Amino acid sequence: MTQSKTIEIRENILAANAKAAEELRDSFSRLRTVAVNLISSPGSGKTTLLEATLDRVSDLRAAVLEGDIATERDSERIRKLGIPARQILTGGACHLDARQVRRELSEAAFPELDLLFIENVGNLICPTTYDLGEDFKVVLLSVTEGDDKPFKYPAIFSRAALTVISKMDLLPYVAFDLAAVETQVRTLNPSSRIIRTSARTGDGIEDWCAYLRAASLTKRSL
């Protein structure tokens, strides 16, 4: 396949995704639902963060879409909390796209929602490119991953409205320069909020929940 043909196919895919994303965004706006696109490397703690979050925001109607290459383990964990959850299996693709999200939402028939969490496939590269109609992206970075990630993967840290630093309870046991990471994030995106969290101890979770409540209140007031 020639390079020009490859570029044309990619442009067509992104155009189709953009159209579906706009349809989703219009729907979320009409329903006053805050859609949050969670992006991180595998194992950074996205599902664990959601587990720690959902019982603390029980005043808000929430549901979760889980994206993975295989298994329904993450959606099963969420459903055990009594929260509606659906699994999107990509069969090898390294990201979710807006058409998958649109199709799954049409089949899920969720009740009216204040919050929809879209937990993307574990990857700091591919998911960044694909708009899912979300209100904002959130990137998680665990202290166990190393402190070089923001400058190594600048696109997601530049686009995320919020950077959640996870597993802070492990900070004393790993080589992770917290100040350097926060400097990198603010260099890439001066307006990005940074919240330090530990799902195990609960530190920072209330700040994260307050961020979500504020986003929901803002959207309901529009």
Which structural class do you get from the secondary structure elements? alpha/beta
How many DSSP H or I helices?
A: 9
The major pleated sheet works out as: 7 strands, parallel
Principal-axes shape call: globular
Summarize the amount of helix as a percent range. 40-55%
Rg on CA atoms, Å: 17 Å
Mean pLDDT: 95
Distance between the termini: 48 Å
Read across the widest sheet, the strand sequence of neighbours is 3-2-4-1-5-6-7
User: How many beta-strand runs?
Assistant: 7
Residues in β-strands, percent: 15-25%
Give the helices and strands as they follow along the chain.
HEHEHEHEHEHHEHEH
Query: What are the low-pLDDT stretches, counting only 5+ consecutive residues below 50?
Result: none
Describe the secondary-structure layout.
Blueprint: H1 3-31, E1 34-39, H2 46-54, E2 62-68, H3 73-79, E3 85-89, H4 98-108, E4 115-119, H5 126-129, E5 136-142, H6 149-152, H7 154-159, E6 162-166, H8 178-188, E7 193-196, H9 205-220
Parallel strand pairs: 1-4, 1-5, 2-3, 2-4, 5-6, 6-7
Helix pairs in contact: 1-4
Jot down its keywords.
222 residues, 7-stranded parallel sheet, 9 helices, 44% helix, globular
Explained architecture:
There is one protein chain. This protein has 222 residues and is of the alpha/beta class. It has nine helices and seven strands, in the order αβαβαβαβαβααβαβα. α1 packs parallel to α4.
